């Protein structure tokens, strides 16, 4: 007789899964620049940020920890590069803006809880599941979650800065499983990135669910994710868990 699967642990991505920024990055950067007497176009800053973030992440992965950087310095440098690419060449003028932005993005007021997140987290707790965070984030995340009222739902918060490895590196998922003292076959991960979350978790033997993000999914990606693993919204998670736990366990 086949054993029914009984999950014990859910791990969660955070940004664009449970939380999102209240305002686009370009708006936040332009607003702070204006407060310091600099007028820079919102669109230019948004585009510059995306380019600078990609370059910084490739040059110094995971906040440059292996290159001797701190996550704070990594972010301050990124702000400088963003403004430089948007046409501001005065690094001295940008320095206080960078400091202010770093503090502002540490504040819960800069973030908002996505619709259905709190109810879903409560529902998962009610069914006896342990929950934890596995996020490519820096040391500020714990305080953000505390301030916004979500920290109480999680046994622990594991960031890529603390772990030393970003998703989809299997070591960050293995570390979460070690901390929770569970096997991958009774754990599931939820996130909005196909590569970092969905594929990363499955590569270590966990179950996983892909949450619909703000951008349309690549059709090839969507076709490769079984319908029962795809969540159009967080409110679809509890029925998806019912379906998963109704299937025979992987032995």
TrEMBL record:
Highest taxon in the source lineage: Eukaryota
Record Pfam families: Hydrolase
One GO cellular component, as annotated: nucleus
SUPFAM superfamilies, sorted: HAD-like
InterPro entries listed in its UniProt record: HAD-like_hydrolase_domain, HAD-like_sf, HAD-SF_hydro_IA, HAD-SF_hydro_IA_REG-2-like, HAD-SF_hydro_IA_REG-2-like_cap, HAD_sf
Family: Belongs to the HAD-like hydrolase superfamily.
Name the record gives this protein: Haloacid dehalogenase-like hydrolase domain-containing protein 3
Organism of provenance: Muntiacus muntjak (Barking deer)
